[in-house]
């Protein structure tokens, strides 16, 4: 969301906590007063059915599910149906030491329409300490903040997911020609995927964010 839009957003109840809102709902006997907290996306009614929700709007585009050696193990209904780090759903031959263990989605080959799966203990397939962000999607919260004024002094940290522990940014490098910025972080993060958002903070203050590429 661009800054020109963010600057016009009104949040009339933004200063309340969720428990306070619950109390107000009870006081005014609102129809939602006893509604449980939403899990996942609030506009998807059934928990855990996000793939079914997308299936109603996106045309299936089946392709192969493969291991990194190119061997085909199954079929998917579309690259949109899986994300990095989720269970593959493939029953691998547990009697073979090469395939024994839990297998997760580790990558997507868009050109070949393939979902790539790797064993959970394949460290290099799932952990990253460098994250690239598309500069065309980056927005600063404060018009006075910019890449030239950003000082990586140990107080700058980033998050990819809301439940992830903030990770200190050690340095960043601009690649203007390819419209990318690369962030080097102090601890590896599991399951970083293209399309996720990287949010940048100074202590607890949000500085800006962009889409991971």
Describe the protein in words.
The protein is mainly beta and 213 residues long. Among the domains are: 63-124, Roll (SH3 type barrels); 126-212, Translation factors (Elongation Factor Tu (Ef-tu), domain 3, Beta Barrel). The protein is 11% helix and 33% strand. It contains four helices and eleven strands, in the order αααββββαβββββββ. The chain has helices spanning 3-6, 18-27, 50-55, 123-126, and strands spanning 63-67, 72-76, 103-109, 114-119, 127-134, 139-140, 156-159, 167-175, 180-190, 197-202, 205-211. The chain has a seven-stranded antiparallel sheet. The relative contact order is 0.12.
List keywords for this structure.
4 helices; globular; 213 residues; 4-stranded mixed β-sheet; 11% helix; mainly beta; Elongation Factor Tu (Ef-tu), domain 3; 7-stranded antiparallel β-sheet; SH3 type barrels
* CATH architecture annotation name of the domain at 126-212: Beta Barrel
Instruction: Choose one word for the global shape.
Output: globular
Query: Largest beta sheet: what is the strand line-up?
Result: 5-9-8-7-10-11-6
H and E string: HHHEEEEHEEEEEEE
The amount of beta strand, in percent, is 25-35%
Number of strands: 11
Helix content: 10-25%
How is the CATH topology of the domain at 126-212 named? Elongation Factor Tu (Ef-tu), domain 3
CATH level 1 class label of the domain at 126-212: Mainly Beta
Structural class: mainly beta
Number of helices: 4
CATH superfamily of the domain at 126-212: Translation factors
Average per-residue pLDDT, rounded, comes to: 91
User: Measured on Cα atoms, how large is the radius of gyration?
Assistant: 21 Å
Low-confidence stretches: none
């Amino acid at each position: 969301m661009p800054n020109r839009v963010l600057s016009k957003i009104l949040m009339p109840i933004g200063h309340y906590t969720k428990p306070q809102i619950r109390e107000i709902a009870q006081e005014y006997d609102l129809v939602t007063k006893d509604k449980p907290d939403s899990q996942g996306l609030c506009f998807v009614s059934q928990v855990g059915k996000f793939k079914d929700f997308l299936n109603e709007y996106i045309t299936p585009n089946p392709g192969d599910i493969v291991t990194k050696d190119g061997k085909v193990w199954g079929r998917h209904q579309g690259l949109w149906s899986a994300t990095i780090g989720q269970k593959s759903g493939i029953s691998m031959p547990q009697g073979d030491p090469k395939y024994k263990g839990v297998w997760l989605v580790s990558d997507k080959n868009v050109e070949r329409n393939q979902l790539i799966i790797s064993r959970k203990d394949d460290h290099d397939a799932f952990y990253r300490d460098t994250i690239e962000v598309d500069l065309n999607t980056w927005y600063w919260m404060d018009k006075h903040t910019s890449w030239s004024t950003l000082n990586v002094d140990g107080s700058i940290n980033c998050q990819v997911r809301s439940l992830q522990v903030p990770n200190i940014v050690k340095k960043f490098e601009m690649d203007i020609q390819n419209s990318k910025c690369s962030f080097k972080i102090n601890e590896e993060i599991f399951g970083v995927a293209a399309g996720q958002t990287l949010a940048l903070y100074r202590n607890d203050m949000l500085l800006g964010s962009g889409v991971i590429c």
